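Subject: Pyrroline-5-carboxylate reductase

B.,
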Amino acid sequence: MATTPIPSDTFKLGFIGAGKMAESIARGVVNSGVLPPSRIFTAHLGAQRREAFQSFGVSVVDQNRQVVEECDVVIFSVKPQIVKDVVLQLRPKLTEKQLLVSVVAGTKLKDLQSRFIRVMPNTPAAVEMAASVISLGGTATEEDGELIERLFGAVGKAWRANEKLFDAITGLSGSGPAYIFLAIEALADGGVAAGLPRELAKGLAAQTVLGAASMAVNSGKHPAQLKDDVASPGGTTIAGIHELEKGGFRGTLINAVVAAAKRGHELSQS
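Prediction pasted inline below.
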């Protein structure tokens, strides 16, 4: 992709699009120490979004072309409906020396350029806990892939996968944080309904999800085994699980992932 390797210790990173995803990635990159904020750029005219990026030192300019002219690695993080037009508008400013990355849901590499690398991250990048999946474009080099793996690996965990899996990845890890936030809110509400103060319930719910996820990642056990370890015969946990099963909890989550994946596929066809 890039005609010469991009220096991994001095490159400048730019974001086309200054929304929540771009902010999450930028914050994670800064917090992890991969790049200082002085080497990160984005463009926006709105005061709120400018202030969000400037609050942790990122340079905010007025025009996207200024980002492209300044940066070695350019991440496109705009709405799926406009990404093709944005790429077309900026094409005269793009050079063979730049590494181009798309984190746009539902937009395939073939609809952009072969020079792109596609990444599906998620918003926990802001706290260096992202789940990101990378697919290289037709002309991307192994060196390009390694740089992007380092960039996104610094804000969480990164995998490589064939692009044909990206709709399903979008439905699971791309949209998944919203499902978990909803679950945390519901758990906290349950705690309040059972008599806990709101702040204590919210803290317990969030920490419980964090701890359970850590066990799922680090224990080496299947999630079903971890569940069984908590659910003693005739106890409180199995009574709660019974209610979840009656409400179709697992089936609802499966349906949510499939519905989001379907929507991602629909976006890629538009």
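The chain has a mean pLDDT of 91.

T.
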